[in-house]
Each structure stands twice: as structure tokens, then as C-alpha cells.
Amino acid sequence: MTFPPKPQASPAEAGKPSVKPARPEFSSGPCAKHPGWSAEAVAKRAFLGRSHRASAPKAQIKEAIDRTAALLGVPDGYRVGIVPGSDTGAVELAMWSLLGKRPVDMLVWESFGKTWATDAIKQLKLDDCRVLEAEYGALPDLTAVRPEADIVFTWNGTTSGARVPHADWIAADRSGLTICDATSAAFAQALDWTKLDVVTFSWQKVLGGEAAHGMIVLSPRAVKRLESHAPGRPLPKIFRLTKDAKLIDGVFEGATINTPSMLCVADFLTAIDWAEGIGGLPALIARADANSAALQQWIDRTAWVENLVADPAARSNTSVCLMIVDPAVTALDEVAQRAFVNAMTGILEAEGAAFDIGAHRDAPPGLRIWCGATVGTADIAALTPWLDWAFAAAKADRIAA
What we know:
401 residues, seven-stranded mixed β-sheet, single chain, alpha/beta, Aspartate Aminotransferase, domain 2, Aspartate Aminotransferase, domain 1, 11 helices, 12 strands
């Protein structure tokens, strides 16, 4: 008896990796939940159906504030509070409340920094406002900032993958304030608190918390500015940190400006539990470093892709941005390049190998892979063969078309 020949797998199917990441969530926000996370554990801890101003829920909010400060090593004398609107709300609150007394230098090298600069110029209409800008993947001339000016910058460019390698460029004897958007740096990179007057971040990045809540850290210098400088513009209620020229202490003691989600508070506390349990901030930084190093090792041996950031010292260890350098793709116009990336990410999503790894819509076409602490290095290692396979499959489809 003869049998018909077995159907042959297509070249793409034949080269498909056999092992998928156990946790394929590589989104740059909201980011992957920490290992061992469960909805049941969060719900059990949450004060659901309770007023956030009742004693026990308020104490839980204060616990989140205090443990955040301890985990990050915030110096004594700094004030830490929870504010509305995620990191965006925290940055806007700082800008609207503090800017206008001194000249301002806005540092821009990715989309969020660009937003802050646009708001400073078009919304706040600041008189002496310089924008120091660089292309995606690079940093502006940090030595050009004025020590007498207030400085607004992102520590880690979430949409470009470029971060400041240190804070040596900020003058220790500066007369201006530094306002730092650290949302994808906090809990994964060593922040130099001596050089930072306002630090903002959200729960949804390195610790994988839920969205909508932001945190703001104020140095004594920032508090002094708040209490001595009337910004000369109307401030919405959700931006007000002072009353009768005095800091509203309650914001930093658990009395939030607006109603927080107690479910999100409980979720954030479970993330802090996990972070403390693995060794605190040094362990969080080490995990992000290991993840980004594993990804970079693959980049270095792979011909079709490069890190968007050429300078290794400026490369993020959390939001790693990649550009496709294969000539068949670089020859395409931007629209076609984005379509190619969409084809790649669509293939990966359909396979359940990686979710949400396309570059930000304002960034150059490419990939963005979150390597923050809640991601496992084994999953990064399992991802890279799938990236190769999806690239080859998307390229083959384009050639066939």
C-alpha cells in the first residue's frame, strides 16, 4: 500500500521556535505584573466599598506612601504624595504650580518631554523658556543647561530608550529647581536625590501596578518654592498642593486630592511586598539590568536590528527601543516600515509569544521591549528567537507580495 506524501511545513513554520515566553507581556505601560501576582490576593487586601478617608483605608494609603519612600531611599525631609492622573498628572501639577519664577530649560529627546515643552510654551506661556532638543535615540547637550534656570526633563525616555547616565550635569549649587519625570526609571535606576527637587512617577511601570495614580516627591527646596511663589495662573483643584501659602500636609499623609482606587492601592502594596521580598531596590535594578543585558546580547549578534540608542551609557534598562536595519526594510518609506512592524507584532501576538512591543506612535518605526524588574530574564531569552522568526516571516510575506 502506498501512502500520499506528508504535507511539508512552510519554511516559516519549520523555523518556528518551540518555547514561548511563560509571560509574554512586554508592554511599556501598563507593564507586566510581578511574578506570583494574583487578583485574589489583591482583592483580599483591598478596602472595597469603603471611604478612602476612613481611618483604616487612609492608613493603607499612608502605608503605600511610606513604603515607597523607604524602597526608593528618598532622603529625610523630602515629602512623598499620591496625586491624580498618573505620571502625567504629577508632571503637570509640578509645572503649573512651580514654574514662572525663574528661566526654564526644557530637555526633550522623546515624546513625553516634547509634551512638557509644548505645555510650557503654549499653555503656560513662560517668558524665558528654552528647549534643548535631540533626536530619538540621542540626548541633548546636558552641559548647556543653566544653573539659574528651572530644568524639566525625563530621566528615562520611555519612548526613545535613552536615559541620562547620571546627574553630574546638574549643578550642586544650582539656584533653579529640577523637575524630573522618572516614571520608567524609578525602581529600576539609581536616582541622584541630591540633584532632584521634584520627582514624578506612576505605579504602572517598573512595579507593574495599576494605572491612573501618580506619585510626586518634593525636596525641601521645592516645598519652599511652593510656599513662597504664587504662580500667577488659576490652578485646578487637582493641582493644588498649598493653602494660604502653606503646603497641604494631608496630601503627603494619605489624604489624597481626589478619590483613589483602593483596589489599585492594594495592588501597589502587593508589588511593594514582592519588591521588598526579593531584596529591595538593588534587586529591582539588578533584574532590569539582567533583562536589558540579555536583550542587548541578542541585538549585538543579530544583523537585522540595532538598539535605537547608539551610546551604551545612555541606553535604558527598562524601555529598550529597537530599529530594524535590514536593507529590505530601511528602503521602505515610513508608512511601509510601520506596516512591516505591525505585521511582525501581529504575528507575535497571534502566536501568544509577545504582546504590545511596537514602538510608540511618535517614535521612529521599530520595536520597544519592556525589560523592567517584573519581567523575567528567561522570558527575554525565550522571546528573541520569536523576534527572529517573526521578522523572517514578515519579510517573506512582503517579498511574496
